[in-house]
Specification:
Blueprint: E1 3-8, H1 19-32, E2 36-40, H2 41-44, H3 47-60, H4 79-91, E3 93-95, E4 98-99, E5 101-108, E6 114-120, H5 122-129, E7 134-138, E8 144-146
Length: 151
């Protein structure tokens, strides 16, 4: 059984990519089987998590610099702003110190909902396809958590 270490690199911003989001995304990549896919954001980040994050970010935005997000000018932060941050943080995600994605782009899908157009790197794709793999997420403070993959 292979163990993979996943983390979000760079920046001092609050990380919005939680282990549950990564686990859902890995599951979608497994189902898809290809390095390119489009996934609805609410398929990997449930609406309740989005609402919770928006409350946390908007409550703390001007009390702590990690909640400011230089790329979001609107006040309060909206879903679209949060989704931009999610895409950027996924773009900076790595597995065993190699990047996971060649492309992560926020898109509007056919029915008006938000999605991510993703292109996985080959090493990440193969790791996702490995059903015996164990993924460990490293939080910014160094704490580790095993990622649960839903089938």
């Amino acid at each position: 059984m292979k163990e993979y270490k996943i983390r979000i690199n760079g920046g001092v911003d609050f990380v919005v990519v939680f282990p549950g989001v990564i686990g859902s995304l890995i599951s979608k990549i497994r189902e898809n089987g290809n390095e390119e896919l489009v996934v609805g954001i609410e398929e990997v980040m449930p609406e309740q998590m989005t609402e919770y994050l928006l409350r946390v970010l908007n409550t703390n935005r001007f009390t702590n610099s990690q909640f400011r997000f230089r790329q979001i000018l609107e006040d309060p932060i909206t879903k679209e702003g949060l989704y931009r941050v999610l895409g950027e943080q996924l773009q900076s995600m790595d597995i065993d110190e190699r990047k996971c994605f060649d492309k992560v782009e926020l898109i509007e899908r056919l029915f008006g909902d938000s999605g991510l157009e993703i292109e996985c790197t080959i090493p990440f794709l193969w790791a996702c396809k490995d059903t015996a793999a164990v993924f460990l997420y490293t939080f910014p403070d160094g704490e580790k958590e095993k990622i649960r993959i839903e089938y």
